[in-house]
Write a structure and sequence with these properties.
The structure is a single chain. By secondary structure, the protein is mostly beta strands. The chain has a domain of 125 residues: TolB, C-terminal domain (Neuraminidase, 6 Propeller), CATH 2.120.10.30. Helix content is 12%, strand content 34%. It is built from 1 helix and 11 strands, in the order αβββββββββββ. Strands 1-2-3-4 form a 4-stranded antiparallel beta sheet, with no helix packed on it. A 4-stranded antiparallel beta sheet has the order 5-6-7-8, with no helix packed on it. A 3-stranded antiparallel beta sheet has the order 9-10-11, with no helix packed on it. Strand 7 and strand 8 form a beta hairpin. The longest helix has 23 residues.
């Protein structure tokens, strides 16, 4: 007795059509039209977590393009990378960047003795400092106000994720557009 399986011959055309469809998608998505190079925004490496400065000129993102997990700053107006000596330390992971209005201040997550901490990099002084050295819990998702005075982040110090606001104080140099006035905070 000969067994007849009508579904078998239908599966073969579906299989080949799927193969041809995937091949055409791969060919149409080739990166040959993406500009690549040391000064190009795009690369063949993984790049993620983009954030813009308040004025829209600077873009910060996490990249693996130089063989390590680092934060890069790109000037969209000049279409070039900004040098940031002291921002990325060897053998540490930097992630979750946030920029102030003109991109002078960058807050980000990094590691200190194996624990994530919130750090701040000042492009004017080219120095980085850890803002949360005493937090007992984990921290994540930092952000900075446009003027650079306030830093927010999530912390798990109470066993759940809570929001913390860190005031860097009235004596810091604010990141404001040239000629702008700043009203003092209300003291109550």
């Amino acid at each position: 007795m000969k067994k007849f399986t009508p579904g078998f011959w239908l599966q073969r055309p579906i299989h080949w059509s799927l193969v041809f469809s995937l091949a055409s998608v791969l060919v149409s998505c080739s990166s040959s039209d993406i500009p690549l190079g040391p000064t190009s925004l795009n690369s063949r490496s993984t790049e993620e977590q983009p954030t813009l400065s308040g004025n829209g000129r600077f873009l910060a993102f996490v990249s693996n393009r130089n063989g390590s997990h680092q934060i890069l700053i790109y000037d969209l107006q000049n279409q070039s990378f900004i040098r940031t000596p002291g921002l990325n330390r060897p053998e540490t992971i930097a992630e979750s960047p946030s920029l102030s209005y003109t991109g002078r201040y960058i807050v980000y997550l990094t590691s200190d003795q194996g624990r994530p901490v919130v750090a701040l990099y000042d492009r004017a002084t080219q120095q980085s400092q850890i803002l949360t050295p005493v937090y007992r819990g984990w921290v994540r998702k930092p952000g900075i106000s446009p003027d650079g005075r306030y830093v927010v982040f999530e912390t798990a110090s109470r066993g759940q994720w809570d929001v913390e606001v860190l005031d860097r104080g009235p004596n810091i140099e604010l990141d404001i557009p040239n000629g702008a006035t700043v009203a003092p905070p209300n003291s109550q």
